[in-house]
Design goal:
The protein is an alpha+beta fold. The protein is built from five helices and four strands, in the order αααβαββαβ.
Length: about 140
């Protein structure tokens, strides 16, 4: 069971997963050993699944981010789900409800790169593309 202390720990780790137990403890006023114990418990129970990084894609030459909604053609869903992991431009992929079946977040170099990706996706279904202008959640 997660309590308010565990939630505070999670909030700090979501901001910066590289924080030490001592740094998290200082921020939430808990000893490093207590923080360690709680984090290990949340890892063991699966509350914390993994740790990650946030990449600044424009610094790597990827200046375009987009959402692509795909309405997969009848009988092609299983095949498409198997192909998704092999497409490096796809950062995240979700099965969704509604008119489309799949919601993709993609990272691309430019409009030509987007066009090439859409061409790869078209045999699997109809696509609807939304360009990401900025992240307003931070």
């Amino acid at each position: 069971m997660i309590d308010h202390i565990d939630n505070a720990i999670l909030k700090e780790l979501q901001k910066d997963a590289r924080l030490s137990f001592a740094e998290v403890g200082r921020k939430i006023k808990l000893s490093p050993s207590a923080v360690r114990e709680r984090i290990l418990k949340m890892e063991d129970t699966g509350v914390i699944k993994k740790y990650g990084i946030e990449v600044d894609y424009p610094q790597l030459g990827y200046d375009l981010e987009a959402f692509i909604l795909v309405k997969v053609f009848h009988g092609k869903l299983k095949l498409f789900l198997n192909v998704i992991p092999s497409i490096p431009e796809i950062e995240k992929a979700y099965r969704i409800t509604g008119n489309q079946n799949i919601h993709l977040k993609v990272i691309l170099k430019n409009q030509l790169h987007l066009q090439q990706l859409i061409d790869k996706l078209m045999p699997f279904g109809d696509t609807h593309t939304l360009l990401i202008l900025s992240d307003v959640s931070s």
